[in-house]
Design a protein that fits this description.
Chain A is 51% helix and 14% strand. With 284 residues, chain A is of the alpha/beta class. The longest helix of chain B is centred in the middle third of the chain and has 29 residues. The chains are: A alpha/beta (284), B alpha/beta (288). Chains A and B meet through helix 10 and helix 11 of A and helix 11 and helix 12 of B.
C-alpha cells in the first residue's frame, strides 16, 4: 500500500518512519523540502501530486488553517486523492474545522478521519501514542493496521470532529495538571522545602500522575528545553476556549491556566517546554 | 452635513435620530427595510444599499453587530464613496479587525475611523454616549460635528484601532465591575446582611462607582431586563480574551469574568441584562 505523509516535524518524522519500516511505500511532501532529507521516501512536488499516488495520506501540521490549505487549497490533496482513499489528520485543530474539511472531502468521495494524538515526541518515537479518532468507524477499521504502527491505544470516539473534541479534553487536563505541578513546586521551594523530595513523596500517593513524573522532573531539574513546545499548548488552549464558548460551557480553570500560558508567551518562552509555567509563577 | 447611517438597531436608531435633530441631512440603510421606517418618518432619506447610501456623502456611519458585518457594509460603502469620504464604524469589534478594515478602505481612498461607544440605549437616546475614536486627525475633525449630536464625552484616543482598544478596556472594567458588585451582594446575603444597606454604605466610600449605583440598584430590584444583554458582554469579553491570546497578555480577572458570562449564555440567560450574573452566583452557592 502507498502511504503519503505531510508534516515531518518532531512528531511526524518518527511516525512516517514507523510506517515505512512496517513495509508501506512512503510518499512525502514538505513545505521546506529539506525536512524530508534522509527519509526513505518519494518526495512529491505538491499535496495534490502526493494524493494522486497514495491510498492513505497522513497529515500532522500546526493549525486549522494549515490543514485546510493542504487539504482543500490550490494543489491541495482534494485535487489528487481518489474516491474511497483516506486522509488521516493527526494534527490538533478545531473540531469545527475538522468537520468542515471532512465534509468538503466527502463531496469527492474521499474519507477523512480526525485522529489527533497524545504522547509527545517520545510517544511518537516509541510508537506508543494514544490516538483518538473521529469519523466513520468502518473507515477506521480499514486503516487500523497503519495506526497500529504508531500507537497502542486507538479509540474510535465518534463521528467527524469527535477525535478533536477528545484531544481538547486531553489538553485541558494535561496542561492544568502541569500548572498544578508548577504551583506545588513553587510553594514547596518558597517554603524552603526541597522540591525533589516533595515530588518523590507525591509520586507514591494520590497526586501521582504522568505529568508530575515527567514535567515535575523537568521543573526540579530546571530543564526547560522543549519536550513539547509551550506555544503549541498555548495554541491548543485558544481552540479549547473557543469550543467552550461555542457550547456555552464555563471552563473557569482552563481560562485561568490560559492566562498563565499568555504570560509564558509574553516572556518569550514559547519554544521552551511547558514546564516553564513554573518560571511564570516565579515572575510574580 | 450630508451623513449616511447604516444599521438601525437598538443603538443605531436613536443615534441616527439625534443626527437628524442636530440638523444634518441623513440617509439611512438597514438590512431589514422595516427598521428604516421610523427614520423615514422623522425626515431621513432611504437608500437601497450601503453603496447608494454613501454616494455623495461626507461622512458614513455604521452601527452593526460584528466584524464580518462591518467589513461587508464597508465594502459597499467603498463602491459608492466620493473622494475624501470619512467612514466611521461605531460597532464594537476587535481592534485587529478594525485596523484591517481601515487598511482596506485606505486602499479605496476612504478615511476610516473606529469610534465605538459606551452608555447603552439610554445614552444613545439622550445623546450622552461616550465615544472613543481611533483614526486620523483629519477624519476626527470631519466626524466631530456628528459625534457631538450623539455623545458627550468624545475622545480621540489614537490611531486606527485605538478606539476599539479603549472600548475593550471599557468592557474589562464594566464586566469585572458588574461581577464585583454581584459578588459583594451575594457575600452580604449569605452572611445574612441586608444588601440594600451594604450598597448604601459603600456608595459613600472608595467602592463608589456608577455600576454600584445604577447596576447595583437594578440587582436589588431584581430587574434583569436589558439594558445591555449578557450575550453582548460575552462577545465583547471574547474580543478581549482573543486579543490577549494573540498578544501574550495575562488577564486572569477578565478570563474568570468571561467564563461567568459564557455560563450565562450557555444556561439561557443570554438575553437578560449582564447584571443577571447575580442569579448565576446565587445558583452556584445555593442562594436561590
Amino acid at each position: 500500500m502507498k502511504v503519503g505523509f505531510i508534516g515531518l516535524g518532531a512528531m511526524g518524522r518518527p511516525m512516517a518512519l514507523h510506517l515505512q519500516r512496517a513495509g508501506y511505500e512512503l510518499f512525502v511532501w514538505a513545505r521546506r523540502p529539506a525536512s524530508a532529507d534522509g527519509l526513505p521516501a518519494t518526495l512529491c512536488a505538491t499535496p495534490a501530486e502526493l494524493g494522486r499516488q497514495c491510498d492513505v495520506v497522513f497529515t500532522i501540521i500546526t493549525s486549522s488553517a494549515d490543514v485546510e490549505a493542504v487539504a482543500l487549497g490550490s494543489n491541495g490533496l482534494i485535487e489528487g486523492m481518489a474516491p474511497d482513499s483516506v486522509l488521516i489528520d493527526c494534527s490538533t485543530i478545531a473540531p469545527d474545522a475538522a468537520r468542515r474539511i471532512a465534509a468538503r472531502l466527502a463531496e469527492k468521495g474521499i474519507h477523512m478521519l480526525d485522529a489527533p494524538v497524545s504522547g509527545g515526541t517520545q510517544g511518537a518515537i516509541d510508537a506508543t501514542l494514544a490516538i483518538m479518532a473521529g469519523g466513520d468507524a468502518a473507515v477506521l477499521e480499514r486503516v487500523r493496521p497503519l495506526l497500529d504502527c504508531l500507537g497502542q491505544r486507538i479509540v474510535h470516539i465518534g463521528p467527524s470532529g469527535a477525535g478533536q473534541v477528545a484531544k481538547a479534553c486531553n489538553q485541558m487536563i494535561m496542561v492544568a495538571a502541569i500548572e498544578a505541578a508548577a504551583e506545588a513546586m513553587r510553594l514547596a521551594s518558597a517554603s524552603g522545602v526541597d522540591c525533589a523530595k516533595v515530588k518523590q513523596a507525591l509520586a507514591g500517593g494520590s497526586a501521582a500522575s504522568r505529568v508530575l513524573d515527567v514535567m515535575g522532573e523537568r521543573m526540579v531539574k530546571r530543564d526547560f528545553a522543549a519536550g513539547i513546545e509551550a506555544r503549541l499548548h498555548h495554541k491548543d488552549f485558544g481552540l479549547v476556549l473557543e469550543a467552550a464558548r461555542k457550547s456555552g460551557v464555563p471552563v473557569p480553570l482552563t481560562a485561568s491556566v490560559a492566562q498563565q500560558l499568555n504570560a509564558l508567551m509574553a516572556q518569550g518562552w514559547g519554544k521552551d517546554d511547558t514546564a516553564s509555567l513554573l518560571r511564570v509563577l516565579e515572575r510574580a | 452635513m450630508k451623513i449616511a447611517f447604516i444599521g438601525l438597531g437598538i443603538m443605531g436608531r436613536p443615534m441616527a435620530l439625534n443626527l437628524l435633530k442636530g440638523g444634518h441631512e441623513v440617509t439611512v440603510w438597514a438590512r431589514r427595510a422595516e427598521s428604516m421606517q421610523p427614520l423615514l418618518d422623522a425626515g431621513a432619506q432611504g437608500a437601497a444599499s450601503p453603496a447608494e447610501a454613501a454616494r455623495g456623502k461626507g461622512v458614513v456611519i455604521s452601527m452593526v453587530a460584528d466584524a464580518p458585518d462591518v467589513a461587508e457594509v464597508m465594502r459597499g460603502v467603498a463602491q459608492g464613496a466620493a473622494p475624501g469620504l470619512v467612514a466611521v464604524d461605531m460597532s464594537t469589534i476587535a481592534p485587529a479587525a478594525a485596523r484591517q478594515i481601515g487598511l482596506d478602505l485606505a486602499a479605496a481612498g476612504v478615511d476610516f475611523m473606529d469610534a465605538p461607544v459606551s452608555g447603552g440605549e439610554v445614552g444613545a437616546i439622550a445623546g450622552t454616549l461616550s465615544i472613543m475614536a481611533g483614526g486620523s486627525d483629519a477624519a476626527f475633525a470631519k466626524a466631530k460635528p456628528a459625534f457631538e449630536c450623539m455623545g458627550k464625552n468624545i475622545v480621540h484616543v489614537g490611531a486606527s484601532g485605538a478606539g476599539q482598544v479603549a472600548k475593550a478596556a471599557n468592557q474589562i472594567v464594566t464586566g469585572m465591575g458588574v461581577l464585583a458588585v454581584a459578588e459583594a451582594f451575594a457575600f452580604a446575603a449569605k452572611n445574612g446582611v441586608d444588601r440594600n444597606r451594604v450598597r448604601e454604605a459603600l456608595l459613600g466610600g472608595f467602592a463608589y462607582s456608577k455600576i454600584l449605583e445604577n447596576h447595583g440598584q437594578r440587582m436589588l430590584d431584581r430587574n434583569f431586563k436589558p439594558g445591555f444583554k449578557s450575550w453582548m458582554h460575552e462577545k465583547d469579553l471574547n474580543i478581549v480574551m482573543q486579543t490577549a491570546h494573540e498578544l501574550g497578555l495575562c488577564l486572569p480577572g477578565s478570563a474568570a469574568t468571561a467564563q461567568m458570562f459564557n455560563a450565562m449564555v450557555g444556561s439561557g440567560m443570554g438575553e437578560e441584562d449582564s447584571i443577571a450574573v447575580l442569579k448565576l452566583l446565587e445558583r452556584l452557592s445555593g442562594q436561590e
